[in-house]
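Hi L., both proteins are below.
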Amino acid sequence: MKANKKETKPEIPEQHFAPAKPTFCVYEVYRKSNKTIYYLEDVKAKQLSKITLDGFQGLPSGLYLNRNGYGFGKKGVFLISALKENLAGTKILELTVSSKKPKKIVKSVGKVSIILPFVDVKNLLVKLARINEDSNNELRGSVASFLSTKFPKDIKISTEDFDEYKAGEIAALLRRKKVAQKLNEEDLESLNNFFPKIFEGSLKGKKRGVKAGRAALIKNTKTITDKIFLDEVIKEFEANLAKKTISENDWQKFLSEKVFRFLANYVTTIEKQNVSVSVSYPDFVLVDVYGFVDVFEIKKHDTPLLSLDEDHDNYYWKSDVSKAIAQIENYTEEIVRNSDDYIRAVKKKKGIDIQVVRPRGYIVAGTSKQFGNKKEAADFRKLGSSLKNINFILYDELLANLKNLRSKL
């Protein structure tokens, strides 16, 4: 006997009915098939009876599908009308909006099936929503350019490129409420990719006002981003100072990547391990915007700075600080003495041209909280001023400079 074939049970959809007409099923969700079928009601159904939403379990946001079965809404009717008039005519029209499938037209006897990508339909409806409701000709024109752009072989009712930007569209979009507050990850990524095009794009032949506007945009954008970045840096700086232990390497990385570019216009760091030369060079060399190098010795924020000579009631450098001073003096002399080799090595490894002319030395260490009295603070200043071409920077002074810069922005 032949084995009975196992019958495949048809999938039972999850039905959702119209609030205004409980007997009318507006859409059915097919979970297994990962699709939703949306049904149009009454007059709308004469042009198009249903819309298949491929890849969606429910009504996706952005299509403005009415929950009573009235379709895309007042302006979306222009899309359905144009499809019916220019492609289907007297034939049955079937429309699929897909999350993954590309655009496609399939014509058969008595029926025309159309697939439109979800993103394209969403962009069209967003554009239609910006147009004044009384401007029906403009609405029809936008639909015509959309269809002619997407299906140039089948529909030739407009010569305009729908995807080409039209002046004023961004201004109209930004006039909508709560734009900045509701940006998502996709929006931010698009803006991140778009802004460099504004700054780098050519404005040859453009009006003077447009050029001035772009210059103002660049300036304002830098100011705002600097504010945001500085707020984050200051917060991280304060957190680092509050830690009991943080390594010199961590301080070096933090200062080079986030702090020094604000205070001294440094543009890059020369790491010792990336520049192979025969003599000893510091781990931390910074290059400013003019190509001049400065030598930095980064110690920790809790590094002890001074000791007290009780016999003479004077303060002197702690052993570790004295070693740092001697080390930075030796590094500076080595760089100057072997400047040609160093310049060539940096050019080869980093691809940048530097100038070695009296490099300045900086020691970043300690905080002013270490000073127990005015005498100790004054002696620290005296000792620092006596050093040749070497400056001391306290961590809390560095933080204060950042805060002052932030207040000026």
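That was the first. Here is the second:
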Amino acid sequence: MIKDIQQEILRIKKEKHITILAHSYQAEEIQEIADHTGDSFRLSELAAKDPNDTLIMCGVHFMAETCKLLSPDKKVILAKEGCGCPMAEQLSADELRQLKKQYPGHTVVAYINTTAALKTECDVCVTSASAVEICRKIENDKILFIPDCNLGAFVAGQLPEKQIRLIKGGCPVHAAVTEEEALTAKKQHPGALLLVHPECVPAVAKHADYIGSTSGIVSFAKKSEANKFIIGTEISIAEHLQFECPEKEFYTLSKRLICPDMKRTTLMDVYKTLQGGGLEIKMSEEVIKKASVCIERMLELG
């Protein structure tokens, strides 16, 4: 049944010249029918270069918005309406304006996991993979980093010469993992390397053999000569890696590392979106223009 639906999706998208984008946290059966897979910003970059004018994002709302910012003339559809991101939505543009008054003279650095509305108030954007490099290149030593305090703390630890202000918040899924779970996992799987996302709390990250973005974790595991890994990010990554590297062993750091919003999108949602479903992302020219400034600055520095 699943294979039949996949074959029909492949047929329809080819017939209608539609490109399917699937974030790394999506299920294996969705990744198999996607044209591009990977981290959110990488997907937006690939979509901008793709020849098709209609894009289906299998992910969450801010990812579809970022895709629209990089491809304003294309039709961008979120496959499952209502899939949000607590971290991206935790701070409003009005609240950020108040923070900017509280910390005058600071360069506002926004994690890519933010809404388009929030990006209109920021100076530069970063991904988890580029955050340290870009913050190092910012001439101003005073930085207000939003919204993930754990990623911000990781950046601050790498750049002691910078004065990095953080706000309370971040990814509730990654932040829920405890130091006790990290120590237990290492004890249960002796010899396995612990790879964690910087959205995890510092108490967990300090036990890691590698700290990096989702794509960084995947790349490290594939290239490493080691054959056992504890994956400290969304559990789907351990599954994908097991498919790609069957000769290696992958263990999840915590059973709680499940993003409910990512798991809401199903193969049938993709099928229905190809038939006119989903949520089309629409933004005013003003929002697109203002929100694109911090992304353009990121590309300049990155």
